[in-house]
Amino acid sequence: MDTYSEIAALNADYWLRVDQRRDLPVAELYVEDGQFTAGAMALAGRPAIAEFFLHRDREQLASGRRTRHLHVNLDVDPISAERIVCRSTVMVFAGVGDPPLEAAGPSTIADVEDVCVRRPGEPWRFESRRLTPVFVGAGAASFVRS
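^ thats the sequence. predicted structure below, dont judge the formating
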């Protein structure tokens, strides 16, 4: 698999874990000291990222909230054989209840900038992931509204 395909697969795996595969920890896709920033929220280190997604999953299960993150326009800019800067766009759809939910516009559209690294013997992982909200609508998470 070429580098672009590997990074595209990493992104697809990330959003699948966020939305549907709670049995696969999102934090595993970050390096140990990885950073995740989304709007006003900034997390540093795999443990903090893991805690955020565990809390998010518990809240969503309790409330019945469902999300789908659609990522598009992936641009991969290699810095070296082991380090890449990626840019993409993510659209978030959110609702509460059992599917099928009534469709509305996206709750958030954000620019995404990632630094991905590949350490010896390991797959590509996120060193940092920054989501910058461009549009927010009904159902957007509070941290992207700030």
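The radius of gyration is 15 Å.
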